[in-house]
């Protein structure tokens, strides 16, 4: 279905890859891996026709349908979330626009658009889209929200839903797991396992690649190598291939040295000159094996260690926290002891980031008490941490701002290199860095002067695999206390020693690592988590991003809860009323349709051509309205059933 033949691409003096080839068959699932800057996203752009190769050829099967998810910044317009999820073709998008702009049921433009919409199975498309949106943790009330009002992560989820609705022949995904929590990630992986099309995905998430891939393609050092199996199979095969390459290279080097020594010793002797000349020609004709190249994942280093803290690091006692009417925590109590490595798990919006903010003191709690232990210093890493960077400094100057414990520039540059600041990159001004680069620099700064209580919110999002391994190595040596949130299961399994599950404002502590939590809780990293996701996820981001609010008293919380029940009851009654009204309208339309059918069956109706034409137009309009109302009734009745 896809053939890449001898593609080469470079930018200026830098060559990304030379004469690389790849063949992807229908139904295959390939993971594209390699260090940042190796050319993975560029290869995607060449396949999609958004960039030109310097040489080579891309061949696609005729009429193949490709779906593409970029890593960041997928476009949105004025469409709703549901419309975005169903915009699987330009024609569907145009029909939605027409239906949105022409609301009069007698408008000819609306009638024509509805007729074509029905021909394209549009109503079933909407129902499918809403099921997929629910799987990605959107709530029914989110479907009609303007997509452009959501955060970037939720926009990417809506685009992901669009691709799953589309079911293209080839699905191309660039870091699709960046904006998914563990529960939604499990649901997404299950969808891809059942997906019948081919998949080509760029990802730094090992567990994701292990779950869905039957092949791995590596771009590194300008070359492309393909391996069978998932990511773990790739690591094993790569190690074996490199060992064979090294052995072959060493054997050839010994042979070359032997031949060169013979030529050097006997070239001048008449009796051996012919043999020496033969060996010289043998050297000239020999196809040289390239020397093995060093890999970035061999990087190892040590960060400074923090001062010792007391045994009790942090205590939360009956903490209350709410954002507006949304109560995140009502009676939260937690003790954190020295040296613990705690991962917070739960669906997006459950309160994981809020708990980190409470522990760090980044938000003022609205009730209860937060107390830090003896000699505890806190470091909190979130996306907002980039605000503490000095935009006018260079990367190296910013990294060295507060270094202690004998760290010098050479060591700092080595650490920066592990986090993808290499060569001349360290002399860039901070202000020209991308958001991901600023985030990585803030992480390096935090680790170069580490506190003894480290709070990390998704620290691996902008890191490649060697950098993630470098971070894992540094944290394993870290002597302080760690609480973190991550959707990278490999990172979690490597670091976490204790697990706290957060759901619906309650926490459950598991005195074991992530796998222990999965066994004891009956959870699975491959389960959908759909119910929890729908209940807790909030695309508007309000519980995680809104500013400080006034304290909420117990009386006020009871009042808010009562109002919420009243709203739910009112909402249910409103839906019941809407269902009843739709049933009345459907009955009236069915009656009208029956009367029109009788008239059209009467031969006398065709005595006047104008009357016959008018009857047919009217019958078509009634048929389309009846189909529309029936679909609206199905959706509304389904909403009502979920509330009962």
What does this protein structure show overall?
The protein is of the alpha/beta class. The protein folds into six domains: 1-64 and 169-229, Rossmann fold, CATH 3.40.50.300; 78-160, no CATH class; 235-291, no CATH class; 335-377 and 452-551, P-loop containing nucleotide triphosphate hydrolases (Rossmann fold, 3-Layer(aba) Sandwich), CATH 3.40.50.300; 388-450, no CATH class; 570-643. It is 46% helix and 18% strand. The protein has helices at residues 40-48, 81-86, 90-101, 108-119, 122-135, 152-166, 182-194, 206-212, 231-266, 273-285, 352-360, 395-399, 409-418, 435-448, 465-477, 489-495, 514-521, 530-536, 542-545, 554-601, 609-643; strands at residues 2-11, 14-24, 29-33, 55-60, 66-69, 170-174, 198-202, 215-220, 223-228, 312-323, 326-337, 341-345, 367-372, 378-381, 453-457, 481-485, 498-503, 506-510. It has a six-stranded mixed sheet, sandwiched between helices. A six-stranded mixed sheet has the order 14-15-16-12-17-18, sandwiched between helices. Strands 2-1-4 form a three-stranded antiparallel sheet, with helices on one face. Helix 5 packs across helix 6 (152-166). The longest helix has 48 residues, at 554-601. The protein starts with a strand and ends with a helix. Mean pLDDT is 83; it is low at 524-537 and 540-552.
Record keyword descriptors for this entry:
644 residues; alpha/beta; Rossmann fold; 6-stranded mixed beta sheet; 21 helices; 18 strands; 18% strand
């Amino acid at each position: 279905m896809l053939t890449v033949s001898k593609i080469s691409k470079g930018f200026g003096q830098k060559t990304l890859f030379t004469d690389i080839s790849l063949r992807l068959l229908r139904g295959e699932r390939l993971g594209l891996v390699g260090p940042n800057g190796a050319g993975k996203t560029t290869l995607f752009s060449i396949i999609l026709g958004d960039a030109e190769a310097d040489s080579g050829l891309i061949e696609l099967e005729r009429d193949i349908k490709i779906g593409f998810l970029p890593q960041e910044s997928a476009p949105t317009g004025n469409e709703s979330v549901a419309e975005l999820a169903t915009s699987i073709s330009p024609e569907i998008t145009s029909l939605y626009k027409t239906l949105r702009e022409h609301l009069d049921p007698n408008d000819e433009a609306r009638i024509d658009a509805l007729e074509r919409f029905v021909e394209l199975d549009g109503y079933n498309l909407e129902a499918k889209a809403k099921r997929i949106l629910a799987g990605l943790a959107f709530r029914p009330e989110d479907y009609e929200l303007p997509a452009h009002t959501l955060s970037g992560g939720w926009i990417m989820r809506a685009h992901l839903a669009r691709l799953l609705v589309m079911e293209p022949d080839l699905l191309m995904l660039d870091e699709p797991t960046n904006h998914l929590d563990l529960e939604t990630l499990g649901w997404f992986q299950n969808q891809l396992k059942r997906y019948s099309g081919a998949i080509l995905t760029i990802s730094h998430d090992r567990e994701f690649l292990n779950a869905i891939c039957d092949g791995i393609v590596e771009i590194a050092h300008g070359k492309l190598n393909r391996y069978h199996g998932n990511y773990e199979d790739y690591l094993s095969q790569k190690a074996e291939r490199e060992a064979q390459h090294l052995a072959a290279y060493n054997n050839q080097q010994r042979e070359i040295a032997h031949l060169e020594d013979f030529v050097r010793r006997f070239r001048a002797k008449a009796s051996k000159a012919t043999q020496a000349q033969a060996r010289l020609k043998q050297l000239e004709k020999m196809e040289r094996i390239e020397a093995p190249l060093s890999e970035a994942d061999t990087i190892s280093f040590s960060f400074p260690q923090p001062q010792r803290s007391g045994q009790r690091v942090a205590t939360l006692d009956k903490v209350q926290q709410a954002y507006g009417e949304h109560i995140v925590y009502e009676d939260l109590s937690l003790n954190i002891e020295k040296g613990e490595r705690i991962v917070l798990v739960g669906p997006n919006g459950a309160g994981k980031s809020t708990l980190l903010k409470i522990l760090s003191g980044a938000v003022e709690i609205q009730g209860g008490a937060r107390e830090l232990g003896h000699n505890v210093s806190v470091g909190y890493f979130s996306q907002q941490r980039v605000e503490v960077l000095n935009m006018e400094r260079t990367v190296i100057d910013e990294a060295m701002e507060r270094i202690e414990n004998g760290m010098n520039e050479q060591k700092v540059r080595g650490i920066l290199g592990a986090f993808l600041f290499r060569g001349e990159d360290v002399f860039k001004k901070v202000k020209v860095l991308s958001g991901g680069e600023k985030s990585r620099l803030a992480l390096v700064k935090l680790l170069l002067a580490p506190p003894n209580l480290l709070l990390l919110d998704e620290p691996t999002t902008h890191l490649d695999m060697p950098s993630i391994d470098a971070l894992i190595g540094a944290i394993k040596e870290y002597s302080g206390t760690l609480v973190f949130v991550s959707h990278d299961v490999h990172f979690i399994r490597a670091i976490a020693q204790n697990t706290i599950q957060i759901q619906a404002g309650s926490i459950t502590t598991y005195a074991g690592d992530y796998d222990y939590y999965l066994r004891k809780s009956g959870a699975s990293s491959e389960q959908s988590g759909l119910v929890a996701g729908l209940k807790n996820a909030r695309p508007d981001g309000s519980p995680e991003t809104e500013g400080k609010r006034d304290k909420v008293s117990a009386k006020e919380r009871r009042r808010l809860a009562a109002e919420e029940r009243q709203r739910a009851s009112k909402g249910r009654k409103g839906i019941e009323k809407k269902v009843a009204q739709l049933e009345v309208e459907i009955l009236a339309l069915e009656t009208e349709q029956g009367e029109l059918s009788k008239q059209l069956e009467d031969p006398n109706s065709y005595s006047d051509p104008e009357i016959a034409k008018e009857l047919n137009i009217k019958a078509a309009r009634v048929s389309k309205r009846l189909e529309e109302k029936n679909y609206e009734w199905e959706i509304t009745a389904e909403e009502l059933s979920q509330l009962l």
